[in-house]
Amino acid sequence: MTTDVTRTHHRGIITLTLDAQARRNALSAGLVDALAEELQRCATDEEVRGVVVTHTGTTFCAGADLREPPRPAAFVGLLRQIVALPKPVVARVAGHARAGGLGLIGACDIAVAGPAATFAFTEVRLGLAPAVISLPLLPRMEPRAAARYCLTGERFGPEEAARAGLVTEWAADIDKALAPVLDGLRGSSPQGLAATKKLVTAKVLDAFDQQAEALAALSARLFATEEAQEGMASFLERRDPAWAL
């Protein structure tokens, strides 16, 4: 148990809750490590049929913690771990998700968003690119929608997120929508779940195997540029960046 990620177990379903509200559940090095550790525990627990990733507060995940960002390789490792986990992983998104938070959602097998959820690929506005998170997202999202929202950084809601393939569905009552999903997992065999997940994630894992190293390097290079430093400083200082027109 950590202060950043809490764990509960109910009838074969482990719920991992991102619980760093003071940082809007941002992806700090500590949170990434804690989530990876909890997922590893789930992978080897024979009583677990599925994992739900959710959050406290009004934000699912604000993206990378700009004050304590994880190493790109560590974040790549976390995303691949979710995709390759032999248990289905379900995202329960009741609040806002930005940048790397969308990567977490994309890595999950199933994602359900509530009416208060909003989404944005904000990297482009900081002098960055959605490099690492493109690995789980591009194989799953509608291409035109991915191009629009990655290039503009626009905010969009849960209905559009479902249309674009970012989430599986959106629902006014998120827990009611999740109930048949979780019951379906509880009624499935461990062997069947593991083998089926391997089939449906094959293309996503191929993307990781072929591109992860290069995209992690791209992310690291962009973070080190003067333009990205200006973008992150302007965000933290709540002002327009120097390039804004």
TrEMBL record:
Pfam families: ECH_1. Signal peptide: none annotated. Transmembrane segments: none annotated. GO terms for molecular function: catalytic activity. CDD domains: crotonase-like. It comes from the Bacteria. Belongs to the enoyl-CoA hydratase/isomerase family. PANTHER family: ENOYL-COA HYDRATASE, POLYKETIDE BIOSYNTHESIS ENOYL-COA HYDRATASE PKSH-RELATED. This is Enoyl-CoA hydratase. It comes from Streptomyces tsukubensis.
